[in-house]
Amino acid sequence: MPTTATETTAGNETVEGSGIIIQDPRTGEELWTVPEAGPDAVNDAVATARTAAPGWAATAPAERGAALRAAAKALNGAAQELAGLNASETGRPVEEALAGIAAAVSTLEQYAELGPVHRGHSLRGSRLASDYTVAEPRGVAVLLTPWNDPVAVACGLIGAALATGNTVIHKPSERCPRLGEALGEVLAPAFPAGVFLTVPGGAEVGAALSQADVDVIAHVGSSAAGARIAQAGALTGAHVIRENGGNDPLLVDRDVDPVWAAEQAAIGAFSNSGQICTSVERIYVHKDIAAAFCTALEAEAALRNSNGTVAPLVDLRMRDAVHSHVTDALAQGARAVEGGALPDGPGSFYPATVLLGCTGGMQVMTEETFGPVAPVQVVETFDDGLRLACSGRYGLAATVLSSNIAHIQQAVAALPVGTVKVNAVFGGAPGGAAQPRGESGAGFGYGPELLDEFSQVKVVHIAAPPAPGGNGAESVAGSGEQDLP
């Protein structure tokens, strides 16, 4: 649980001194304190990255790719150490942390290959002229990354930013600051001095970096923080890329196997204790299979609670937020058929929870809960479920379970989200990207399209000069000047 000198812990104990104090999510014991960067350190990082930017931009793309491959190799070699820190600071099981690091290694290698082939486009113009676009780095990139999959998410942004020739200032989440520092120590030696920097800190440090003289800000985190960052970028002129909160719906049609559908719902709602940006946050199930589906979902949650596979939430603050959503639903008439109560014992554990009888006004159906909670609302028809799934201010992702191709096509067309998943709550081809909508963010995240986000485009027009002693009529006619206002 991160705490600074000006905050108090859940036990109302005032913390003396400076820095971010981390507590073990499993035991509540204090692990360590990580100093926060002050205003001078933020300013120095921006100045250093600005100084290094021209040289890195001028580095051949193949050399930048080679540096990324070296960083990927170093990351792979440090996987066990980083996974241990991930488990200590966020409670994520080591095997899951290792899987995230493996994904990060693959992502860095992917951008090492994609960077050198990232190119502009040729344009059709006069046969005596050349018209094309050139992709150039934006300059200094600030990356503000989360704690729930800290290495994989960070390396996606780091890889794309560095491959396109930007220098990077990375601020990892204050919920895993030691891991963020260690990641920086592993990656930075692969690049020239000043190209990749790590700045630890909380919201104040993130705000200072967002308001600094930088060229692009990429943020993965809450919608509230994303809105503040977007406002800061509007004032400074920095390009802003955001993947923020979601309230992702799962729509279960009448023609699917209810037991299989419940397995999918459990995977979507309970994986990583529900702490995934694209977790299943609300479920709409057709009345014809609702009874069998709910029985199977209750069993899935009970199994996870009995075998101890539900990891703790990242800290007590997160657990309090999750439980407040559950208690709100219970107060409004929902029933917790599994979980739903704060467990005894230390740490920030919360049980896999199934809520039945949910309605649209409950926080679990309108807000991002970000915990192992599966709220279920029964609907009369597929159209009713789709209408409810399309509601809300978020637009990150949605899942449809159906065998009816007409219903699937209808949902794909109607759902106002960046990603629609059909008959699988997770998965997708490597290199996939999406554009979040609404309060879930803006701009492409991940994939080849992320290279475009970290680039700015220059249009080039080259006309043939007039022949010596000629009047230049043919050259001028083919120069494209007729297109000028």
UniProtKB/TrEMBL annotation:
Ranges where the record places region Disordered: 465-485
InterPro entries noted in UniProt: Ald_DH/histidinol_DH, Ald_DH_C, Ald_DH_N, Aldehyde_DH_dom
Positions of the Aldehyde dehydrogenase domain: 21-460
Pfam families: Aldedh
Keyword field: Oxidoreductase
CDD domains listed in its UniProt record: ALDH
Record-given protein name: Succinate-semialdehyde dehydrogenase
Gene source species: Arthrobacter liuii
